[in-house]
Design brief:
The complex is a heterodimer of chains A (350) and B (250). Chain A is 39% helix and 22% strand. Chain A is an alpha/beta fold and 350 residues long. Chain A folds into two domains: 7-236, 3-Layer(aba) Sandwich (Rossmann fold), CATH 3.40.50; 240-349, Rossmann fold. Chain B is an alpha/beta fold and 250 residues long. Chain A binds chain B through residues 26, 28, 52, 54, 56-58, 60-62, 64-74, 76, 90-91, 94, 98, 198-203, 206-212, and chain B through 41-45, 47-48, 54-55, 57, 60-68, 71, 74-83, 86, 103-104, 106-107, 111. β10 (208-209) of chain A pairs parallel with β2 of chain B, so a sheet runs across the interface. The complex binds thiamine diphosphate (TPP) and iron/sulfur cluster (SF4). Iron/sulfur cluster (SF4) binds next to α8 of chain B.
């Protein structure tokens, strides 16, 4: 039964609520702004649900605690913000190599280095291009509202389990900190049966979870199998949203918080009579490149807006038809583009 | 004919890849004997380190996961917290545990995680070709301390058992040596005790084992064993550093 009561929560709390709704009772994490409400929420709620909360000694430890929890078959998660996610890259590579499901929330702040605690989309490359060592991919969702912080957390558990792959919710400081009303719905897909977990070899041969393959050709085969899985993910899990693209001459492409700002700018442009639309990738890996490609058959120009110096724009350029113009407008280092700024860019490039 | 000696049931028939004389084989056997003794192979999960013993999953009949270098105690924590009915042990070398994974071992111990850690101290990085470890003795030549370990530039060898024993979270901490039968029998008792602590839900148990690495010490097995006795034991004294009673917790 779907509850139709709206409640006002912060994005970070919505993540915690979504996780528990998805059956995640094991949380491991290390404090970092601007995501502290997630560990705080989990430390309060999990004991009430017979779960476990561990404040790890570092993000290196938290991602590896998630790896252990995942190996014994439970749903578990960690959350952090950019510098902490950097420390988790080793663990993410192992999770991918051992094909272990895990959910990681990145409430992105600005960098490089210690950077600052203001919002940013500077971790796009790190999230969707690998980040750690080796050829692997992390399924990456890009929420743009508090409702989606909740929904995507649930979806992340589902995708992680179905593909036995780490899945990241790539949020940002604005999404983590802002309050919006959300619906807590009850529709959570059933957890798939896991026949690979390490739960004791009592009535079966011993199992191993590993990423080390030393025999001739074994590792190449393992890599090819992983790539095949990523292709399946590309085929079935692409998600995106479009507004007013049907007759658009210029389409603004943006994800997450930038997409919300861009949407306001696009409606103002429409009010001015400009044929402008918005394309918002909801999954950034898998990237909705095919859709962008078909849009580029009739859209003359794309304007990519990001809170960084130009990361997703590279994926847009890779996917649109050769002669399509792709412009970029970005604000790095904690700056947030305003709707007026984006509108000015729309008018400039229209 | 009466059989007087057999391979533990927790080990399979795979031929081990360890060098002749290597201490890992004996240490594996002691762990396997403990699994047999308490009849827990069917509910045990091992955590393999990065080091020569990463391939331990090929030899045991229990479930095993491979952890990133040094992170075994964190992986073990995640497992045990999520499935407290499982017996979880980590098996780590001295580079893995005392260098890159120092934070993970100290904090797992300090939290009193109900896991068992078997620590193999062979004073070198075996797998990567004999570089200096945090446990390398002063004056010891390794491929990255070619003039001998010098405390001015390399610091002093770390005594892990002594470091962990004072932490409130630990319940059993011992250092044993695999140099001769009498010591191996003592080590066996220690490993058993460490698993017993976990089975009784008492908390974090740790057994350090002094072992030989003839390959990287550039010695034969007999010389290596003598080195444990002449050089290692004087610096790394043997004994039980801490043993709490189950009653302490009730
Ligand atoms: C992050 C990382 N750094 C370095 C290495 C390389 N490496 C593999 S094993 C090892 C040392 C192992 O030594 P030890 O833990 O003493 O175990 P032993 O091989 O002696 O049993 C190192 C440094 C690695 N695999 N990963
Ligand atoms: S290198 Fe040393 S530790 Fe590694 S298998 Fe050989 S003897 Fe054992």
């Amino acid at each position: 039964m779907t509850e139709q009561k709206r409640i006002l929560v912060k994005g970070n709390e919505a993540v915690g609520m979504g996780a528990i709704r998805a059956g995640c009772l094991y949380y491991f994490g290390y404090p970092i702004t601007p995501q502290n409400e997630i560990p705080e929420f989990m430390s309060r709620e999990l004991p009430r649900h017979d779960g476990e909360f561990v404040q790890a000694e570092s993000e290196l430890a938290s991602i590896n605690m998630v790896l252990g929890a995942s190996a014994v078959g439970v749903r578990s998660m960690t959350s952090s913000s950019s510098p902490g996610i950097s420390l988790m890259q080793e663990g993410l590579s192992y999770l991918a190599g051992q094909e272990l499901p895990a959910v990681v929330i990145n409430v992105v702040r600005c960098g490089p280095g210690l950077g600052g605690i203001a919002t940013s989309q500077g971790d796009y490359f790190q999230a969707v291009k690998g980040g750690g060592h080796g050829d692997y991919r992390v399924i990456t969702l890009a929420p743009a509202s508090v409702q989606e912080m909740y929904d995507h957390t649930i979806l992340a558990f589902d995708l992680a389990d179905r593909y036995r792959n780490p899945t990241m919710v790539l949020a940002d400081a604005v999404l983590g900190q802002m309050q919006e009303p959300i619906f807590e719905h009850g529709d959570v897909p059933p957890e798939p049966r896991k026949h690979w977990t390490l739960t004791g070899a009592a009535n079966r041969p011993a199992r191993h979870l590993k990423s080390l393959y030393l025999k001739e050709g074994e590792l190449e085969a393992h890599n090819r199998m992983l790539q095949e899985k990523y292709r399946e993910i590309q085929k079935h899990e692409v998600r995106f949203e479009e507004y007013d693209v049907d007759d658009a001459q210029l389409v603004v492409a943006a994800f997450g918080t930038s997409a919300r700002i861009a949407r306001t700018a696009v409606s103002r442009a429409r009010e001015k009579g400009l044929k402008v639309g918005l394309f918002r990738p909801v999954t950034v890996f898998p990237f909705p490149g095919m859709r962008l490609c078909s849009l580029s058959e009739r859209v003359k120009k794309f304007l990519v807006v990001e809170m960084n110096t130009g990361q997703m724009v590279e994926d847009v350029r890779l996917n649109v038809k050769g002669d399509t113009e792709v412009e970029f407008y970005g604000r790095p280092g904690g700056a947030i583009p305003t709707p007026v700024e984006v509108l000015t860019q729309i008018e400039r490039h229209y | 004919m009466k059989q007087v000696f057999a391979k533990p049931k927790a080990l399979n028939d795979e031929i081990m890849h360890y060098c002749p004389g290597c201490g890992h084989g004996v240490a594996h056997r002691l762990v396997a004997e403990a699994l047999d003794h308490y009849d827990i192979t069917g509910r045990t999960v091992g955590v393999a380190p990065v080091g020569c013993s990463v391939l331990m999953y090929d030899y045991f009949n229990c479930d095993i996961i491979e952890a990133p270098h040094g992170r075994a105690p964190a992986v073990a924590t995640g497992m045990k917290r999520s499935r407290s009915d499982l017996i979880v042990f980590a098996y780590q070398g001295d580079g893995d545990l005392a260098s890159i994974g120092l934070a993970e071992i100290v904090h797992a111990a300090n939290r009193g995680e109900n896991i068992t850690v078997i620590f193999i101290n062979n004073t070198v990085y075996g797998m990567t070709g004999g570089q200096m470890a945090p446990t390398t003795l002063l004056g010891q030549k390794t491929t990255t301390s070619p003039y001998g370990r010098n405390f001015n530039t390399d610091g002093y060898p770390i005594r892990m058992a002594e470091m962990l024993a004072p932490l409130e979270g630990t319940t059993y901490v011992a250092r044993m040596s695999l140099d001769k039968p009498v010591n191996i029998l003592k080590a066996r008792k220690s490993v058993f005790k460490a698993f017993e602590m976990q089975i009784n839900n008492v908390g974090f148990s740790f057994v350090e084992l002094l072992t030989i690495c003839p390959t990287n010490w550039g010695m034969d097995s007999m010389e290596s064993i003598k080195r444990i006795q002449d050089e290692m034991i004087p610096y790394f004294p043997l004994g039980v550093f801490k043993e709490k009673e189950t009653e302490d917790y009730i």
